Amino acid sequence: MNSIADFKPGDIATIIGFTGEMELQSRLVEMGFVPGIHIRIVKYAPWKGLVELKIRNYHVSIRMSDAKNIKVKRFDY
Amino acid sequence: MITNFPNEKYIALIGNPNCGKTAIFNHLTGLDQKVSNYPGITVEKKTGKLKSDSDDVINVLDLPGTYSITPESIDERVVAEQFMDWIHGINRPSAIISVVDATNLSRNLYLTTQLLDLGIPVILALNMMDRVKDKSVLPEFSDLKEKFGLAAVVPMSALEGWGLNELKNAIQTSITIRNPRKSRMLFSSHLEVHELLNPLSEYLQQQFDYTPRLARVQALRLITRQSAVDLYRPPHSGEHYFDTEIVSIIEELREAAVQAIEKAGLNHRTLEATIRYTWLDNLLQQSENKEVEVLRKITRSEKLDKILTHPIFGPIIFISLLVFIFQSIFSWSTYPMDWIDAGIGLIGNSILDIMSAGILRDLIVEGIIGGVGAILIFLPQILILVFFMTLLEDSGYMSRVAFIFDKFMTKVGLHGRSVLPLMSGYACAIPGVMATRTIDGWKERLTTIMVLPLMSCSARLPIYALMIGAFIPARKVFGLFNLQGLTFIFMYFLGTFTALVIAKILSKFIKTKGHSSFVMELPPYRVPLMRSVFHQVYSRGKLFLFNAGKIIMAISVVLWFLASFPKVTVDSTNISNLEQIEIVNPIHNSYAGKIGHTIEPIIAPLGFDWKIGVGLITSFAAREVVISTLATLYNVEGDGENVVSLSESMKNDINPKTGLPVYSTLVALSLMVFYVFAAQCMATFAIVRYETNSWKWPLIMITYMTSLAYIASFLVYQGGSLIGKF
Description:
The complex is a heterodimer.
Chain A: E1 2-3, E2 12-18, H1 25-30, E3 38-44, E4 50-55, E5 58-63, H2 64-67, E6 70-74
Antiparallel strand pairs in A: 1-6, 2-3, 2-6, 3-4, 4-5
Chain B: E1 9-15, H1 21-29, E2 46-49, E3 58-62, H2 74-87, E4 95-101, H3 105-115, E5 122-127, H4 141-148, E6 152-155, H5 164-174, H6 191-208, H7 212-224, H8 226-230, H9 244-263, H10 271-284, H11 288-296, H12 300-308, H13 313-332, H14 334-354, H15 359-376, H16 379-394, H17 397-411, H18 419-424, H19 429-435, H20 442-451, H21 461-471, E7 476-477, E8 481-482, H22 483-509, E9 519-521, H23 530-564, H24 578-583, H25 591-603, H26 610-618, H27 625-637, H28 646-652, H29 665-677, H30 682-692, H31 696-725
Helix pairs in contact in B: 3-10, 6-7, 6-9, 13-16, 13-22, 14-15, 15-23, 15-27, 16-23, 19-30, 20-22, 21-22, 21-28, 21-29, 22-29, 23-27, 25-26, 26-27, 29-31, 30-31
């Protein structure tokens, strides 16, 4: 199973769900990270602490440690 | 928590962070609350009155931005607590304006679906319509209204200022609605979920008299997060007091419901949001092709970010910006400072001409004009600082700085979201401490608060500027930099660097509770609205003048009395040499003189004389008071025939015991370093006490900062003296 952390900037992926007991999943799903929605990996912050994503026409950054818990599959266009 | 508007009609503005609620609030009320381009700039409730032709008073409540009704951080909890009151029938608004960013409809409408559960009329304000290039992506407004069960849908742009009359009309109509339309959201399609939640929702229904629908919604919300349970617990339960017994029953039933949901193969943390989004996405019906097309579009902001958040250029650009800003503060302010200085001298001298000699003239010239005037000179520098800080915030750049530095900040025990509070600390610690509410981890938040006063605030600016202007030679170094400007930047660097070191140390001692996460929107860059930037500069300047006019004037007047009395008549026939003239200057026998001389032995190792000692005491209230204190003391000491310039008096001051000048470059450095670290601001202690809810943290703050100040000054002065001897 892939996580966002396995992709590189420019890739588009489809959200499948979350792994683990990650507390943040409540917030992410409230922000629209629901299964079936697509995201684009925009870029990594310096020192790879954060990743910037585009979803539902907005840009958001989350920590890599949290990104690892978002299950996705590659979306080819 | 204060009751909002008892017995008066009011409407509430709710929406996601950075969707323009406060801009709409300002339009509706004619007030000027701070707006910005940073998610989470409003951390508190704001209230005003609706401007309208109608005689009825309608109040407006602006709430902090939130993505959901169950809170993740303290600024969001403000909304959640308010919501608790409304659910339980207390203080319900006549209507809710759900402000949404039209460029980002689905995510914004999520919160709207939650608002619709209350049975209060909801007006949808489709803000930022100016930014929607392709209007065909928007759903039919009449469709939205029907399917959601909204009271009205108003497309508008708070930025361009249109749609506001329509919004006001919608408000007037909505507040008369008696039976608001029910939300059309279909929970009935998830019967199996409600079956599992039944014990919990039935208990809520009979205990609190909820409608069946509200009971189901609350049950869903309770299983999402622990924080939803905590909302039933005082002090977060709004106006309510729920018995501990009730809360523990809720807790038990919740635990059982969570188990049941998990057993059914569902995710209790994401259930509410998944149900709502399924309904919402289905209603908005965006095709996958369209969705991917939007995703692939590279925005202008993204192109700018290729450089601005670049792994190497990003940090370099940020540091260069800071250096440029502090250098500008120092160099741009020279001329306006001279003008103000000349103006104050002119006023003082004309009063000397007009009024006849006496105590009143002395009080006005030495106390008020001498003291307050000395502070006013630094107004231009503070305005320049606030100008730049507002530009950074309004452009959308500050959230990028959080993005660049989160990793680094985490390493020193802080948080990416600590950057904005710390940077606002350059202007003033108080708004900075309040801005920490957007940091969701308590440990990171507390650490940020504790080191924030080490950021050199604008009250230190006059001290640095005075000392550097008078005692640091205006030499060029490396043929490029001005030594004065460099010293100035160094003081800012010293404070900032120490803040990071102390944060690292503190984070080892503060016991952690709860987790920390980082989710931050990166809003599109925007050319700052000059009207709003200048408004910020203006209100900051007004605050500074107000302080100068009130606190500093009061302290100056009191100090003038202390420095002028008791009057001792000097028998001049007994004076044989210059040294004695100095000693018998009446100021030495005054109350202020006695106080200063008493503490002189403690501060002598730092290179400070008794006048600075008096300044250290008075400036415990606010740092900049040290300037007015010194100015008043020198004016009283002077012959009273003209208003003396503070920096000239300091340069000419001779220590009667040693016959050497009181001030040297070393003393100036020692004094500046002292003020970099010293905890001297009553208002900061008060806000820290309020935000941490205990006296423990402000006391620790005062202790560590004062110790740091004394030790650092001691090292600078004694070390410098030693080097000087060789």
